[in-house]
Specification:
Distance between the termini: 20 Å
Shape: globular
Oligomer: single chain
Largest sheet: 10 strands, mixed
Radius of gyration: 20 Å
Helix content: 40-55%
Number of helices: 10
Structural class: alpha/beta
Length: about 280
C-alpha cells in the first residue's frame, strides 16, 4: 500500500515553499491526495472574560473574530500558493487552517494522513521553542510518521538513496514499515546498525541482516552495514555515514528513550532534530 494522503504543514517562513515542493513531488510520485495545513493559535473567548473583560474595548467574541481575521489574512498567501501548486501539478487536495495550540491541533490532523511533512525547528529563530513543541507532539501523539525537512539546504531528490537507522527496537521497526512505500521506490537502501554489540539479544549473527532480508522479500534493493563508534555520538555517526554514502533520506525511530531523558542527556533523536543535513522520516 502506498502513500495516499500526504499532509504538509505550511507557514510564513521562507522554507515553507520548499516543504510544499517536496510534498507535491511525493504526491505526484505516489498519486496521493495532498493536504495543506496552516496552524492558527486562536485562543478561547474565555481567556478574555473575567477581570480582563473591563480592559477590552470590544467583547471577547469580537476580539476572537479580530484575531481570526488577522490570521486568515496572514495565511491567505499560503493558501493561494498551495492551490496554485495543486493546479500546476495536477493534484487533488484540500486546504485547512487548524485553530488552537499548534502542539495540540497538528497531531490531530496528522492522524488522518499517511505521512506529515514539517520543517525542522530553526534554533536561530525566536519561535524555535513553539515549533519544537509542535514537532515533538506530532511525533509522540499522532501515531503516524513525520517527515522533517531541514531548515537549511536544497533537496532535489528525497528517497532515492535511503539510510535506515536500525537498532532492532520497536520504534525502528515502526519507522521501517512506515517507510515501506518510499523504500520500495528507492534506488538504494542501506540498513545501518551502530554499536550493535550494545543491543544485546536484539541482533542476529549479522547486525541488520534480519531486517534487510525482510525488506528484500518486499522487492527492495537493500544492503546491511554496521559500524562501531566510541569517539562521537551515535547520532553524529549516523549523520556522518549518511554523508559518506550520499543519502538523501534517513529513516529512524524516534524517542526510544523518554523525551525528557533525551532533552537532558541527548540521544539519536535529539541529534537528528538539531543537526540533520538531509530530510529524516521519524516514527515513534
Amino acid at each position: 500500500m502506498g502513500l495516499k494522503e500526504i499532509l504538509v504543514h505550511l507557514d510564513v517562513t521562507p522554507r515553507s515553499a520548499l516543504r510544499l515542493d517536496i510534498a507535491a513531488d511525493l504526491a505526484v510520485r505516489e498519486s496521493a491526495h495532498l493536504v495543506g495545513v496552516a496552524t492558527s493559535d486562536i485562543p478561547s473567548a474565555e481567556l478574555f472574560r473575567g477581570n480582563t473583560m473591563t480592559l477590552l474595548p470590544v467583547s471577547p467574541e469580537q476580539m476572537i473574530a479580530r484575531i481570526r481575521s488577522e490570521s486568515a489574512a496572514e495565511n491567505a498567501p499560503l493558501e493561494a500558493a498551495f492551490r496554485t501548486c495543486l493546479r500546476v501539478r495536477g493534484l487533488t487536495g484540500e486546504w485547512r487552517i487548524a485553530e488552537g495550540n499548534p502542539a495540540a491541533t497538528l497531531p490531530m490532523h496528522a492522524r488522518y494522513a499517511d505521512v506529515t511533512i514539517v520543517g525542522q525547528p530553526n534554533r536561530y529563530e525566536a519561535h524555535q521553542a513553539s515549533e519544537d513543541a509542535m514537532l515533538a507532539s506530532t511525533l509522540l501523539l499522532s501515531g503516524r510518521p513525520v517527515l522533517v525537512i531541514p531548515f537549511a539546504g536544497e533537496f532535489p531528490s528525497v528517497g532515492q538513496r535511503v539510510l535506515v537507522a536500525w537498532n532492532a527496537s520497536r520504534e525502528a521497526t515502526r519507522a521501517v514499515h512506515d517507510a515501506l512505500p518510499l523504500l520500495v521506490r528507492a534506488q538504494t537502501v542501506t540498513v545501518l546498525a551502530i554499536n550493535p554489540a550494545s543491543d544485546v539479544g536484539r541482533h542476529g549473527d549479522v547486525p541488520g541482516g534480519d531486517i534487510a532480508a525482510h525488506l528484500a522479500h518486499h522487492g527492495i534493493k537493500v544492503e546491511a552495514a554496521h559500524t562501531v563508534t566510541t569517539d562521537i555520538s551515535e547520532g553524529a555517526a549516523l549523520l556522518s555515514y549518511a554523508a559518506d554514502i550520499g543519502a538523501d533520506l534517513i529513516v529512524s525511530g524516534a524517542y526510544g528513550h523518554s523525551r525528557v531523558r533525551e532533552m537532558v542527556f541527548g540521544g539519536v533523536t535529539r541529534t537528528l532534530l538539531n543537526e540533520m543535513t538531509v530530510p529524516v522520516l521519524l516514527s515513534h
